[in-house]
Design brief:
heterodimer; A: 232 residues; alpha/beta; Rossmann fold; six-stranded mixed β-sheet; four-stranded antiparallel β-sheet; 31% helix; 28% strand; B: 410 residues; alpha+beta; 2 domains; six-stranded mixed beta barrel; 13 helices; binds adenosine-5'-triphosphate; binds magnesium ion
Chain lengths: 232, 410
């Protein structure tokens, strides 16, 4: 039998109720993502990209349907169990970096380890290795305010890598960066993917999405296109 | 996640907002300091009262001449209306509950030794008086029967007199001048400190009652054996209420007081007076401590307020921590530990502040204050508990946040 999909969604639906009316942010999405894939998620604003990312990142649970992470059903776990899954299998990168202020790059990167089983003596070496992997080996003790936007995003990527996750999820990771820096960050993602990391990222820009191997197009809470780059 | 890691994380979070943490702690510092200081003042007062009760040495009645008839006035058929020396012996033989009945006659006097001059009170007494008033001879001896009966020119001096006139040197065998006659110091008294009215009990000279009567108070021919008061020391376990009535009845009979007339004497239960004072002190102390506790509670509410602000302010941080794997209980614990560290640290600083204030009060201001180590430890523990109590709600609120909502929070 072949390796299970890293992520497999089966008809996931998500409803948000706003007062009396219900908004279906996802209306039955089926996606399978295998290990080593590099997927770009695209679509207009409000099409459900972030909602989809939150579901597969175990930040939220679907109203309906199933999510399998590495073959395991995670659709109905409680908050603590989901926290463990995120800690163990998922690495997040956010548009606004979300680094702890007045905290060194090293400590920021080590944060996920605080909630893991990893013994404390391994924290520093692992955080350091992560930062070296994203090219910030010289900036271990700088605080976020002493780093450029691109560097901050690299710290955030190092943090996503530190627990050696199955899946890296990035929701508009270049949304707050200029074009040049955006492509540097994308080059880093590509490099990580070449090294075997499974990556899913949301973007609005086709040039950014072109770096990925596969594209998912959302519209109105539905997956409308799913194709491999170069097989258009 | 280890407890040391939790504490370190809390310290870091608190240092990031140093000014606010310090101001929040101030509430707890003041609260804890107030409680400890009040309790210390209470303990000091209590210790003083205890010392006074100890100084009494048991149950004491003082029988004294009625103030309106001081000096003795004869009314009607030759009945003498003042306390007489023989009343002491009479009560002693009539009431077996009396351990010692000691007549006393006092007079102020000027005491001179070398070129030193001191004005004090001379109390004329016999050896029963030492028992009745719980005086202990520190050095030397008590009165011999001969000195007592014949009115010898000898003195037993209190600790204050000894210090003022003799300093470090030995007063025993020395001759001091009292008003216009010389007496020989045969003993010194062990110090008793202040009495319940704050009077120095050691500023006293004891002499045979006859000596005081003839040489200081002046003999009245009509009333040659008058005494000022009689101290009655009662055995432990005796019924003081019943005795009070018995003594009064016996005295009225002995003094031939008409049934309708008022008592020509005053009978006071000294132990009861001190006990009442002790009770008043105790109530006052509890009141002070209660008021101080209110400030501690107010400090706790301050902690809660700041923790709530902190949770709101750090919503995105909480979201991020959850995203990277913090469970709700991790978040709960983090904020709880922050509150406890804040309070525990505030408590420790408050205790140090209180220590300084207590020492200053006790040593320099003259308000007796005693800081018990247990109270200090309890108040630090208690303030940490306040941290748990007032920190719990904000921490719970933080832990209940949904990660996506927290991450999106503006
Ligand atoms: N917490 C929420 N409460 C109510 N409605 C929500 C909530 N989150 C998302 N929605 C709605 O769900 C739909 C999908 O939102 P989502 O954030 O997934 O869009 P998106 O594709 O990420 O958009 P963008 O490109 O602007 O980030 C939108 O209509 C949005 O208004
Ligand atoms: Mg979005």
């Amino acid at each position: 039998m072949s390796q299970p999909n890293v992520i497999e969604t089966r008809q996931i639906r998500k409803a948000y109720s706003m007062g009396d009316n219900v908004i279906w942010a996802l209306k039955g999405v089926d996606v399978s993502i295998k290990a080593g894939e590099f997927v770009a998620v695209m679509g207009t604003s409000g099409s459900g990209k972030s909602t989809f990312m939150n579901m597969i990142g175990c930040l939220d649970t679907p109203s309906d349907g199933k999510i399998l992470l590495n073959g395991e059903d995670v659709s109905h776990l409680d908050a603590a169990a989901l926290a463990h899954i995120r800690n163990r299998y998922i690495g997040f990168v956010f548009q606004q970096f979300n680094l702890l202020p007045r905290t060194s790059a090293l400590d920021n990167v080590a944060l996920p380890l605080l909630y893991s089983e990893v013994p404390e003596r391994e924290w520093q070496p692992r955080a350091k290795a992560s930062l070296e992997q994203v090219g910030l080996g010289e900036r271990l003790h700088n605080q976020p305010s002493q780093l450029s936007g691109g560097q901050q995003q690299r710290v955030a990527i190092a943090r996503a890598l530190v627990n050696n996750p199955l899946l890296i999820l990035a929701d508009e990771p270049t949304g707050a960066l200029d074009t040049r820096t955006s492509f540097e960050i994308m080059a880093l993602f590509q490099q990580l993917n070449d090294a075997g990391k499974t990556i899913v990222l949301v973007t609005h820009e086709p040039e950014i999405a072109a770096v990925a191997k596969r594209k998912l197009m959302f519209r109105d809470g539905e997956l409308v296109e799913d194709y491999l780059n170069g097989h258009h | 996640m280890g407890i040391t890691k939790l504490f370190r994380a809390a310290m870091i979070a608190l240092r990031v907002n140093l000014m606010r943490s310090a101001l929040t702690m101030l509430g707890i510092i003041i609260g804890v300091a107030a409680v400890i200081i009040m309790v210390a003042i209470g303990a000091g007062a209590q210790q003083q009262v205890d010392a006074q009760i100890e100084g009494l040495g048991g149950n004491i009645f003082i029988l004294s001449g009625s103030s309106r008839r001081m000096g003795g006035v004869t009314t009607g058929a030759g009945s003498v209306q003042s306390l007489q020396q023989e009343h002491a012996d009479y009560l002693q033989t009539q009431l077996p509950d009396i351990e010692a009945a000691a007549p006393m006659l006092s007079n102020s006097a000027q005491v001179i030794y070398g070129n030193l001059n001191w004005s004090t009170t001379v109390e004329g007494m016999d050896n029963h008086y030492l028992t009745a008033r719980n005086w202990v001879i520190a050095n030397g001896r008590e009165l011999s029967p001969q000195e007592s009966n014949a009115g010898g020119k000898v003195a037993i001096i209190g600790a204050t007199i000894s210090k003022e006139l003799f300093g470090e040197s030995d007063p025993l065998g020395q001759t001091i001048r009292v008003n216009n006659f010389n007496v020989n110091v045969i003993g010194t008294l062990k110090s008793k400190g202040q009495d319940s009215r704050g009077r120095d009990q050691d500023d006293v000279i004891l002499m045979p009652i006859k000596t005081v009567r003839t040489r200081l108070a002046g003999v009245s021919n009509s009333n040659p054996t008058r005494v000022q008061s009689i101290y009655l020391k009662i055995y432990d376990g005796a019924d003081m209420q019943a005795l009070e009535t018995d003594i009064a009845d016996l005295m009225r009979t002995r003094m031939k007081v008409a049934p309708t007339a008022e008592d020509p004497f005053m009978l006071r239960n000294l132990s009861e007076m001190v006990a009442t004072r002790a009770e008043t002190t105790r109530i006052f102390n509890s009141l002070l401590a209660a008021v101080a506790s209110v400030s501690l509670v107010v400090g706790g509410i301050g902690i809660m307020n700041i923790m709530l602000v902190s949770v709101t302010e750090r919503t995105r941080e909480i979201g991020l921590r959850m995203a990277v794997g913090a469970t709700p209980s991790h978040i709960l614990l983090q904020f709880l530990v922050e509150a406890v560290v804040l309070c525990g640290l505030g408590g420790a600083i408050g205790m140090l502040l209180a220590l300084v204030v207590v020492v200053v009060l006790d040593q320099f201001v003259g308000t007796p204050a005693v800081m018990q180590p247990t109270i200090a430890l309890i108040s630090i523990g208690f303030s940490a508990l306040i941290g748990v109590f007032f920190g719990y709600y904000p921490a719970l609120k933080a832990s209940k946040l949904q990660p996506i909502d927290a991450l999106r929070y503006e």
